[in-house]
Design a protein that fits this description.
By secondary structure, the chain is α/β, with parallel strands linked by helices. Helix content is 37%, strand content 20%. It contains 28 helices and 28 strands. The longest helix has 24 residues, at 807-830. The protein is globular, with a radius of gyration of 31 Å. The model is unreliable at 596-605 (pLDDT under 50).
Length: 948
């Protein structure tokens, strides 16, 4: 009979890791891999026995996590009851080291099931009987660097003899450490960190437009080697100024961040061992704590003076490293965001030796095997270490924030800057050159052609990728004039102006005509200054204007919290200067004259539902959103609503009121008041899946735009596009929501029904069809059918669509449909938790434009019906035999799709068009209907219609 597991709350350190694990359970960011090359004949049985002994000795290796009664617990199982760590063995005869490492890392990157365990994996890839790649991978919940080093020594001894160490393990186990942490943190330590970090600003790292296929915590690394000359200067400075190498690296990183961002008050996170109690020096577990090093950089200050400050900062932080980072966060209560650390954006890690160098096995040659790990904990992390007598480093970076080219430039600048700081420690840090002579000449040459130069605060040219103040004139002669703009030369040499991310996000909202962000405006309460968003609203099709709360919610979901303005003010127009750009002084005056904090004085005030219909609708909103007390004008999408939740609401409205409701109709009427009006006037849905998205002038021969749904069946992806089309153009759509449409028996039946629906609804009108993804395939077929009916088709636009024409296309489409049916069966049996279990499923849903997390929240039966409906649609499309439409065809290709993909899409349409207009747009497949691509799509779409 096995004993019950030891149940303890997670430690503060584990709570932080578990929270981030829950944000991205499929990410490998908190997997800790040790990748080794083993030569001399690795013995499978001896390795398995040694791993069994390790798991028996250490409680942390038998740990799982469970949520029970609202509390997250760690369960430490007995050696007999714990899920066993199996040694996986794969043979790749003749593979080279890089291929073997890639296969091993692919296995290591698989997510851990923290509920079932185990949280350790061992994978071996055999290249030959004498050559193996060995990967030991752990979840960060159970290991840190010190623990990995301890396990390295034990594995060496246990591989030689499984009985070499007592099975009971160390005297002081992980449960003892965890139990000792349950008390409140030291008040003095907490007070120190609260004072030290109070009012700390967010580091304004310049973010770039990155394709959204880079998911949460996706990252990469840029490596470098510190030249011998610089390493020698480092040793000399450390001796002469009585500082450690870590202190030098900390000070140099602060200078880099200052020169890159212009920030003077800078915070850098760094890991500390957390093993203050020496009883736990050899205990395996997650003890590591994070501390925040905060310092100021003054450009006139010498590096030697900055080193003194850095030394004091590091020593004071070391003395208080036992205060848990999560406790510090709780005390400071900074704005929390899912995509970044709450207290710092840049981190520094320094190891005196590479962890993999500690791993040995008796009688075998073991060495670190280089590998690529596509994850990053933070926006930017500088890691330095000594490896075989050489000082090496890398910058790990978030692929959501930066491109590789930018970080490669940052790494080159860091090496040049580090050498300059060490060579002249007394020189002002703001004057140390960031570039060598060749790079400087290149940057200056780029400023002859653009006729603009990017300079820092001391009027020095900045490297490629660095934002600064834009000037005209000749910086080499000291004669320049500031334009008032911020900009940079991108790594590829293009000149780019900087735009406030919040301003860009506001301008992309479908109910906003124009926007400007104004900093440092006197607050409405007269107690300081605030940042204000000035907005020119765009009325919705039902005449309603956006609310300030709606726009702020929109921003909070799209930009970092520190960039969201404190309030929104509405105006008729945004004042501009002679150059056409917003005149911020004039806008500030306009804002100061409108002190009301909630926008326009006539903005509708939330009211309680007025009648029985509104009360029932409000109840449905609250039921699905989990938000009580919603008012008539509260927007469904402002309170966590999304496309799949909208599908659920439409189904519930149909049940409650006995009236079919189109999802597209609801998209245009997302408040209780507006939806009640729709139900009252009988426009909730039309036959054939037709949705009238916008009324036009209705004149015979006038243009109407018809949008065709993608695989997901709804029209919600077209929201931004509809808002950009000129007033007076009627816009309709065809949607296909599970349970609301006729059962088509063939692809031709589906196309004929869609064509007849449009022909009847838009009689005598010129029709321009547009479809994204699979919607483009449907639009192409419907355009052909409409032409055969004698209808005037002005244009058919295909947004990143792949033609379905070959037998291989049909097989692929049918196979995907079969996968969806099988997945639906799994959902019915095991619930929606099975969704997204594989990378293939995740990619498929992204391609469909389906929010996987939202689909998981959908009731299992409804989710299964949706999957089956998508599968039926794909089965129908597999029958597609496309013909050439009479109308001109416009094909949009996404420039940031994987290499070769745009060319493949273009090739797939060869011979299926008469006149063809191919346009490239920025972004990926899933970004083409958002800013900035959608603006270019609409402009090209309208321009081509004018020509036709």
């Amino acid at each position: 009979m096995t004993s019950a597991p030891i149940a303890l709350p997670l430690t503060p350190q584990q709570r932080g890791v578990y929270f981030l694990h829950c944000l991205a359970p499929d990410s490998a960011v908190y997997n800790v891999p040790i990748v080794l090359r083993v030569r001399g004949g690795l013995d499978r049985e001896r390795l398995s026995a040694a791993v069994d002994a390790l798991q028996s000795r250490h409680q942390a290796l038998r740990l799982t996590v469970e949520e029970r009664d609202g509390q997250v617990l760690q369960l430490i199982h007995s050696a007999e009851a714990a899920a066993r760590v199996e040694v996986s063995w794969t043979r790749l005869p003749g593979a080279d080291a890089e291929t073997a490492a890639g296969e091993a890392v692919r296995r290591a990157a698989q997510p851990f099931d923290v509920v079932r365990g185990p949280l350790m994996r061992v994978d071996v890839v055999e290249v030959s009987p004498d050559d193996h790649a060995l990967v030991l991978c752990f979840h960060h919940l159970i290991i840190d660097e010190v623990a990995a080093t301890a396990l390295a020594g034990e594995l060496d001894r246990l591989y030689g003899d499984p009985a070499a160490l007592p099975a009971a393990g160390p005297e002081h186990q992980y449960a003892d450490f965890c139990a000792g942490l349950l008390a409140e943190p030291d008040p003095a330590g907490l007070a120190f960190w609260r004072d030290r970090l109070a009012g700390m600003p967010v580091l304004p790292l310049p973010e770039e437009h990155i394709p959204e296929e880079h998911g949460l915590f996706t990252g990469d690394r840029v490596g470098f080697t510190v030249p011998e000359k610089t390493a020698a200067r480092l040793a000399e400075v450390c001796r002469g100024h009585r500082v450690s190498e870590f202190m030098v690296f900390h000070a140099a990183l602060m200078v880099l961040l200052h020169r890159w961002t212009g920030a003077a008050d800078i915070a850098v996170g760094t890991p500390m061992s957390g093993r203050i109690d020496l009883r736990f020096a050899e205990t395996v577990g997650f003890f590591q704590n994070t501390v925040v090093l905060r310092g100021a950089v003054v450009p006139e200050q010498g590096f030697a003076a900055l080193l003194k400050t850095a030394r004091r900062t590091v020593l004071e932080s070391l003395q208080r490293q036992d205060t848990p980072f999560e406790a510090v966060v709780d005390a400071l209560r900074p704005a929390r965001e899912s995509t970044r650390n709450p207290l710092f954006q840049a981190a520094l890690v320094f190891n005196r030796r590479k962890v993999e160098q500690d791993w040995t096995l008796p009688g075998l040659q073991v060495e670190p095997l280089p590998f690529v790990w596509p994850a990053s904990h933070f926006d930017l992390t500088l890691t330095l270490l000594h490896e075989s007598g050489v000082l090496k480093g890398d910058f790990a970076y978030s692929a959501q924030r930066f491109t590789k080219e930018t970080v490669e430039r940052v790494a080159a600048v860091f090496l040049h800057l580090l050498d300059g700081l060490l060579a002249a420690p007394d020189a002002p840090v703001g004057d140390v050159e960031l570039m060598d002579a060749d790079d400087l000449e290149h940057v200056l040459a780029l400023g002859a052609r653009a006729e603009r130069y990017v300079l820092d605060e001391r009027l020095r040219p900045l490297p490629l990728g660095f934002y600064g103040a834009v000037h005209t004139g000749d910086p080499s002669a000291g004669v320049t004039t500031a334009t008032g703009e911020r900009g940079r030369f991108a790594p590829d040499g293009r000149f780019e102006l900087w735009r406030d991310p919040a301003e860009a996000a506001l301008a992309a909202h479908p109910a906003v005509r124009a926007a400007a962000i104004v900093p440092c405006v006197p607050s409405a309460q007269g107690d300081g200054h605030e940042t204000v968003g000035c907005v020119v609203p765009r009325p919705r099709p039902d005449g309603e204007l956006p609310s300030a709360r709606e726009l702020l919610t929109h921003l909070q979901a799209r930009v970092p919290a520190h960039l969201v303005p404190q309030r929104i003010v509405f105006c008729v127009a945004i004042p501009t200067g002679a150059d056409g750009r917003p005149d911020l002084d004039a806008v500030a005056e306009l804002v100061a004259a409108r002190p009301e904090p909630d926008g326009l004085p006539d903005e509708p005030v939330d009211e309680e539902p007025r009648d029985e219909t509104e009360r029932r609708l409000a109840g449905l909103f609250e039921e699905l959103l989990g938000v009580p007390g919603l008012g008539r004008y509260d927007n469904f999408f402002d309170f966590g609503g999304h496309s799949l939740l909208a599908v659920r609401l439409v189904a519930r409205v149909a049940e409650e009121f006995g009236r079919p409701l189109g999802v597209g109709v609801f998209m245009n009427h997302p408040t209780v008041a507006a939806l009640a009006r729709v139900l009252a006037d009988g426009t909730a849905a039309e036959a054939g899946g037709l949705v009238r998205l916008r009324e036009g002038d209705g004149e015979p021969g006038s243009l109407a735009v018809a949008l065709i749904h993608p695989v997901g069946g709804t029209l919600m992806c077209y929201g931004d596009l509809v808002s950009l089309l000129p007033a007076g153009i009627e816009v309709v759509g065809l949607e296909r929501v599970a349970g609301t449409h006729p059962e088509d028996t063939s692809y031709q039946d589906l196309v004929s029904r869609y064509a007849a629906t449009l022909a009847g609804a838009l009689r005598g009108r010129r029709i321009a069809l547009l479809g994204w993804s699979l919607g483009g395939v449907l639009a192409h077929s419907v355009a052909t059918e409409l032409g055969a009916l004698g209808h005037d088709v002005a244009l058919v636009a295909l947004l990143d669509s792949l033609a379905q024409r070959t037998g291989e296309d049909a097989e692929r489409m049918s196979g995907t449909g079969a996968e969806l049916f099988a997945l639906a069966a799994s959902v019915r049996q095991d619930g929606t938790g099975v969704l997204g279990a594989t990378a293939g499923q995740q990619l498929l849903m992204r391609r469909f434009g389906v929010d996987l997390a939202a689909l998981r929240e959908t009731p299992a039966e409804q989710a299964a019906r949706m999957l089956e409906d998508w599968g039926r649609l794909l089965g129908l499309v597999a029958e597609c035999a496309p013909a050439v439409p009479a109308a001109p065809v416009q094909l949009f290709l996404c420039a940031d799709n994987p290499p070769g993909y745009p060319e493949a899409l273009a090739a797939s349409w060869e011979g299926l068009h008469g006149e063809l207009d191919v346009r490239g747009v920025p972004g990926t497949h899933t970004e083409v209907l958002g800013s900035p691509a959608v603006e270019q799509v609409v402009a090209a779409f309208l321009e081509r219609i004018e020509r036709s």
